[in-house]
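2024-03-11 09:14:02 INFO worker-7 job=invfold-0412 stage=load source=structure_tokens
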């Protein structure tokens, strides 16, 4: 009987091949209203003055707080195994130097 209850509460999550590949982001911008948090994930390319939002995630305030706690927990676990994560944002307005690497040409 207890096993039947556990099976009723299981959530089957599917991950498509496209989503499973992931999207690289080196900048996130977070905005919010009273009812939602919006997280824009951006890829900034070296030497280019413009960047595009690669993914946007919209969360309720409750889910945003749960995500924050999950990130805190996972960062603590990561740092206990690999040492402290360096804060590269110091000294750079956006956290990364905008003029690193060669100039992009199209």
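2024-03-11 09:14:09 INFO worker-7 stage=emit residues=106
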């Amino acid at each position: 009987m207890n096993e039947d209850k556990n099976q009723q509460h299981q959530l089957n999550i599917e991950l498509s091949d496209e989503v499973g590949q992931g999207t690289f982001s080196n900048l996130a911008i977070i905005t919010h209203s009273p009812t939602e948090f919006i997280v824009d994930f951006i890829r900034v390319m070296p030497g280019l003055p413009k960047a595009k939002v690669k993914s946007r995630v919209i969360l309720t305030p409750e889910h945003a707080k749960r995500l924050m706690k999950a990130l805190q927990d996972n960062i603590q676990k990561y740092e206990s195994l690999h040492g402290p994560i360096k804060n590269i944002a110091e000294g750079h307005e956006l956290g990364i130097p905008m003029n690193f690497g060669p100039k992009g040409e199209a």
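2024-03-11 09:14:09 INFO worker-7 stage=report msg="The CA atoms of residues 44 and 51 lie 5 Å apart."
2024-03-11 09:14:10 INFO worker-7 job finished
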